[in-house]
């Protein structure tokens, strides 16, 4: 299951992680975000070399602002503390897995 983190945890959980991290920026009121919840959780359980975290943008405005999140859902992949790619919008599981594979994850 994806771990919920806050702005204070972001550096430790994402930027200092020794494994690649998928960050899901979301909000309670966002319908497409809610559609992604089971998909993100499945990916977190199935992809062993990936840490998956969720950031609620309403409760944690700093992290999304720091990374230029303009729309949600936004997913970002970090490797070695650096942002390597971003996807905006609800995507099917197969598309997310293909995206991760393109970065040698999954």
Structure description:
This protein has 106 residues and is an alpha/beta fold. 34% of the residues lie in helices and 26% in strands. The protein is built from 4 helices and 5 strands, in the order βαβαβαββα. Strands 1-3-2-4-5 form a 5-stranded mixed β-sheet. The longest helix is centred in the middle third of the chain and has 16 residues, at 31-46. The two termini are 16 Å apart.
Core attributes:
single chain, 106 residues, alpha/beta, five-stranded mixed sheet, 5 strands, 26% strand
Give helix and strand order, one letter per element, not per position. EHEHEHEEH
Main sheet summary: 5 strands, mixed
| Rg computed from alpha carbons, rounded to a whole number of angstroms | 12 Å
The span between the termini is 16 Å
The helicity comes to: 25-40%
Mean pLDDT: 97
Q: Approximately how much beta-strand content do the residues carry?
A: 25-35%
Shape: globular
Structural class: alpha/beta
Furnish the topology, listing elements before pairings.
Layout: E1 3-5, H1 10-15, E2 21-26, H2 31-46, E3 51-56, H3 62-66, E4 74-79, E5 82-88, H4 93-101
Parallel strand pairs: 1-3, 2-3
Antiparallel strand pairs: 2-4, 4-5
Structure summary:
The protein is of the alpha/beta class and 106 residues long.
């Amino acid at each position: 299951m994806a771990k919920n983190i806050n702005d204070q945890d972001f550096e430790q959980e994402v930027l200092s992680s020794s494994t690649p991290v998928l960050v899901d920026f979301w909000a309670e009121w966002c319908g497409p975000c809610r559609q992604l919840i089971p998909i993100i959780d499945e990916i977190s359980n199935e992809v062993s070399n990936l840490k998956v975290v969720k950031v609620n943008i309403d409760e944690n405005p700093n992290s999304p602002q720091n990374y230029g999140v303009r729309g949600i859902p936004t997913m970002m992949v970090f490797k070695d503390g650096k942002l390597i790619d971003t996807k905006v919008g609800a995507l099917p599981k197969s598309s997310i897995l293909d995206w991760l594979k393109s970065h040698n994850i999954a």
